[in-house]
Amino acid sequence: MYFTKEQFQTYQEQGFLLLNQYLSPDEVEIMKGELPALFAEDSPGKVLEKDKNTVRAIHASHTRNEVFERLSRHPRLVEPVMRLLGSEVYIYQFKINAKAAFSGDVWQWHQDYIFWRKEDGLPTARIINVMVLLDDMNEFNGPFFLIPGSHKEGMIDTSEKKLTNVSKNPTDSEDGSSWKANFEANLKYSLNPETVADLVSNYGVTSIKAPAGSVLFFDSNVAHASPCNISPFTRSIAIITYNSVENIPFPIENPRPEFLVSRDYRPVEPLAEDSLLLKSLV
Ligand code: SIN
Ligand code: MN
């Protein structure tokens, strides 16, 4: 058992749980060693920052990289998630957000579930994000902001609002691929400032400061954001989203690409060893 009873309660109450240095420095080193080659690849789910050069995010690395495939099956991640969701799980989405030094851009305030509900037909919020810090996260490098307890509001439907903070049609991307609009700095279902102000006045706000190897479990309805990174410190993270096998999306027209919403519903089999360290990798 990786979580104590109190930690399960904290997760339910706050909508998130941070575990400091949950993975070892050796595991972090192995994962970080994979990033330059993965960022250099011309993979279909690659998103660049506005400078059209710096990598902002890559997707589905667990399908083509052994280290991240093992990360996605790490028992320290998968077992608590199965307990929290009360079922087996499959990988719904896997992404690495680079938030590069001096150029990593903002992630506007949002909840995740609304994207998956509206874009993918996900029936319920029985789905959990697990963020693995691949660098230290501090006050300078675009840390992750959360509104503790905001998941209790459920999905806040922003689709009716006028998107005042979006300068163009939010479904259009520079290169015409509509899925990218959900990953660039202008988000399609961002929360408006009034809503964020109300939530913060009701629940407060916090930010994550933790060393590399720390892991954040967070609810898909907890409001979150991150500012841009103008520091010299890169802030890379992996986010693995596990969905309950009892929460398969409804069939929809024009589903988003497989690297954003996996249709491989096979349950994750946790690794037998409690470590990413493979003999061939060390
Ligand atoms: C996200 O909301 O999925 C990512 C936020 C971040 O990288 O800070
Ligand atoms: Mn998000």
How would you portray this structure in words?
This protein is α+β, with helices and mostly antiparallel strands. Helix content is 22%, strand content 18%. The chain is built from 6 helices and 11 strands. The strands form 2 sheets. It has a 7-stranded antiparallel sheet. Strands 5-10-7-8 form a 4-stranded antiparallel sheet, with no helix packed on it. β2 (47-48) and β3 form a beta hairpin. The longest helix is centred in the N-terminal third of the chain and has 16 residues, at 25-40. The chain is globular, with a radius of gyration of 18 Å. The model is unreliable at 161-171 (pLDDT under 50). Manganese (II) ion binds next to loops.
Number of strands: 11
Shape: globular
Kindly, what is the distance between the CA atoms of the first and last residues, rounded to a whole number of angstroms?
Answer: 27 Å
How would you spell out the order of helices and strands? HEHEEHHEEHEEHEEEE
Count of separate DSSP helical elements: 6
Helix content: 10-25%
Main sheet attributes: strand count, strand direction, barrel closure: 7 strands, antiparallel
Hey, roughly how much beta strand do the residues contain? 15-25%
Average pLDDT taken over every residue:
92
Which small compounds were modeled alongside the protein? succinic acid, manganese (II) ion
Based on CA atoms alone, the radius of gyration comes out at 18 Å
The secondary-structure class comes to alpha+beta
Unreliable runs: 161-171
Output the strand order for the largest sheet: 1-9-6-11-4-3-2
